Amino acid sequence: MKFENEAVQIVSDFxxxxxxPDPIRAATYMSADVRITFTGGRVMPSTTEITxxxxxxxxxxxxxxxxxxxxxxxxxxxVYSNGTLYGEWPDGSSFSGNRYLDRFEVRDGKxxxxxxxxxxxxxxxxxxxxxx
Length: 132
Prior knowledge:
Elements: H1 6-19, H2 23-27, E1 30-38, E2 42-44, H3 47-57, E3 60-72, E4 77-88, E5 94-107, E6 110-118, H4 120-125
Parallel strand pairs: 1-6
Antiparallel strand pairs: 1-2, 3-4, 4-5, 5-6
């Protein structure tokens, strides 16, 4: 998908690479000193750590991308990506409709900050809420 906003395109390309999963290609969209924080305040030092974390939490997982919203700041652009996650839990049971929201800061053509929130922890703790 092509976007007119450069920061949104960078985030979209990063998400595509991370869902492959291709942590090496995903890393090319990140600055060397990127700050990555997942739900629960888990700090991820690299895209490789994101892939490893997801491999422990899911058998596989993908994003159904929703809207991208962005706000221009003096020295960076904030990009929000929202949508839902779908995939399989480690036991092989499938899931979908798991809401996510990712917040990115893009400076000088690279992602410098990424914050991730989703419903997975709540669904793991109380599986009955995952079933409408």
